[in-house]
Amino acid sequence: MTLRVSRLYGMDIYNDEGKFLGKVQEVVVDLEKGEVVRILTEPLASMSREDAKRILKEKSVLYKYVKSVEDVVMVAKQVGPSPPLE
Fold first, then answer.
1. CA distance linking residue 65 with residue 7, whole number of Å
2. Which DSSP state fits 38?
3. Domain parsing of the chain, residue ranges
4. Which of 12, 17, 55, 81 has the maximum number of C-beta atoms within 10 A of its C-beta?
5. φ, ψ for residue 74 (rounded to 5)?
6. Element (H, E) at 61
7. Taking the model in full, what pTM does it have?
8. Are 72 and 14 contacting, i.e. CB atoms less than 8 angstroms apart?
9. Is the dihedral of CA 53, 25, 6, 80 positive or negative?
10. What is the pLDDT along the chain (86 residues), one digit of tens a residue?
11. CB within 8 Å of 35: residues ≥ 6 apart
């Protein structure tokens, strides 16, 4: 599946149980691999390193859990804590 990253911004994010998780505010891209790594529900602009780590841990979804991107972003429900940041 190929789509423009800009299309993701502002989209609603729901898990596969229908729970609203937020709206896409930021997208983290691995430039070496050329792929999206995470989608965030809060912007990272002008904040401390600690706040950025908190948002990446608590307010983001790993893109590998995305099941579908159409009118909304549908993600698999994550079980357990978020994986450690790389």
1. 18
2. E
3. 5-75
4. 55
5. -105, 125
6. strand 60-62
7. 0.79
8. yes
9. positive
10. 677 888 999 999 999 999 999 999 999 999 999 899 999 999 887 778 888 888 888 899 999 999 999 999 999 976 444 544 44
11. 29, 63
